[in-house]
Design goal:
Elements: H1 3-25, E1 54-56, E2 59-62, E3 73-78, H2 83-86, E4 94-98, E5 101-102, H3 117-128, E6 135-142, E7 145-152, E8 154-156, H4 195-203, H5 211-229, H6 238-263, H7 265-269, E9 273-276, E10 279-283, H8 289-292, E11 300-305, E12 317-321, E13 324-325, H9 328-336, E14 341-347, E15 350-356
Antiparallel strand pairs: 1-8, 2-3, 3-4, 4-5, 4-6, 6-7, 9-10, 10-11, 11-12, 12-13, 12-14, 14-15
Helix pairs in contact: 5-6
Length: 359
């Protein structure tokens, strides 16, 4: 056999071996559907060692993927008589910071899959270094304003033992160290509870749902489905779960659109509504300021507007009319005036100038 032939035969054998190795390392799934990474690092939590018990606050945190994430992580459930509940934290509140660790999401990152996740993992690691009885400062948003409350760390036995993922907290909810596909701890959402349901459970009577609590409940359901997608046994149901998550996302976006159109009961209850011919306006409730943008509290939110007010749209915040602070009277004068008027408005948190010409 010639030397060239021997070299060619050896090369083919090496290529075939490499192909088998690649096929083993990168074997495709049964179909071409992309698969979500399902790496799960179980936290060893032997029950016999008290030193391994997880530090907790008794609160479940998640993110809704909506603009309200700029206020902080959503409290989707609170453990009965836990540290957070004793400090006055309730389901539906937002936690902006834990011991000065910022949990708010940047506006540019809203809707991203792991937006805020790194901050929660940092907070979880910080909590794991504390001792029972240590105080934790929580920056909480509720009732349209921020406040700081103090909770005392408690200890509870983790439910995961012998290599199982630790999920801590009363009634299946809590903040603790859980599985992760990176090198950091993660706050687990063991079983996200819809906000309306968890509030009803703590009060003993059904809570009247609002658009705000419904949006958060849908977001909690999305978070739960994402966890199901990451389970090793998701298998053939993964495609259906992904489709369901996307459908819930569409529902949440439609609910958010209704909120921004001024149909949210809580917004109308906390703000005064005014009407002119062809347009419905409202002052801006405090809880909407982070959503609408800085300076919106001094303007008038457009709830409805017909064609005669074009280019003004629902969701705009009118700040100034002809360089003067926006008022109903100035808008009426601009609407009935013989000359075009200039209006400075906030639209999607950006200030722009529009010309209203009703001639």
């Amino acid at each position: 056999m010639s030397r060239d032939r021997i070299f060619l035969t050896a090369s083919m054998v090496l290529l075939a071996s490499a192909g088998r190795v690649l096929a083993q390392d990168h074997a495709p799934a049964d179909d071409d559907t992309p698969r979500v990474a399902r790496t799960r690092t179980a936290v060893q939590t032997p029950a016999a060692q008290p030193a391994d018990l997880r530090v907790l606050l008794g609160v479940t945190l998640t993110y809704s993927g909506a603009d309200r994430d700029t206020l902080g992580a959503l409290v989707s459930a609170v453990a009965a008589d836990g540290p957070a509940e004793r400090a006055g934290v309730e389901a539906g509140n937002r936690v902006a910071a834990i011991n000065s660790i910022d949990l708010r999401v940047d506006p540019e990152s809203i809707g991203e899959r792991d937006a805020g996740g790194a901050s929660i993992r940092r907070a979880a690691r910080a909590l794991s270094t504390l001792d029972p009885g240590d105080e934790v400062a929580l920056r909480v948003f509720s009732g349209g304003r921020f406040r700081t409350v103090t909770a005392r760390i408690a200890v509870a036995a983790p439910r995961g033992v012998g290599g199982q993922t630790a999920e801590v907290g009363g009634r299946g909810s809590g903040v603790g160290v859980a599985s992760s596909d990176d090198d950091g701890a993660r706050v687990t959402v063991a079983a996200p509870v819809p906000v309306a349901a968890s509030t009803a459970a703590s009060s003993g009577s059904p809570a009247a749902p609002t658009l705000a609590t419904t949006v958060d409940a849908v977001a909690a359901a999305q978070a739960q489905i994402r966890q199901l997608e990451q389970r090793e046994d998701a298998g053939s149901t993964l495609d259906s779960l992904t489709a369901l998550e996307q459908e819930l996302g569409a529902i949440r976006r439609r609910l958010r659109s209704i909120q921004l159109s001024g149909d949210r009961p809580s917004a109308r209850a906390s703000a005064s509504q005014k009407t002119l011919d062809g347009i419905s306006l409202s002052t801006v409730a405090d809880e909407l300021v982070p959503v609408l943008g800085e300076g919106s509290e001094s303007g008038l939110l457009v709830l409805e507007a017909d064609e005669s007010w074009d280019p003004i749209r629902p969701g705009d915040v009118i700040l100034r009319v002809n360089d003067q602070p926006a008022t109903i009277e100035r808008l009426r004068t601009a609407r009935n005036g013989a000359r075009a008027s200039t209006m400075d408005v906030l639209r999607r948190k950006r200030e722009i100038s529009l010309v209203l010409d009703t001639r």
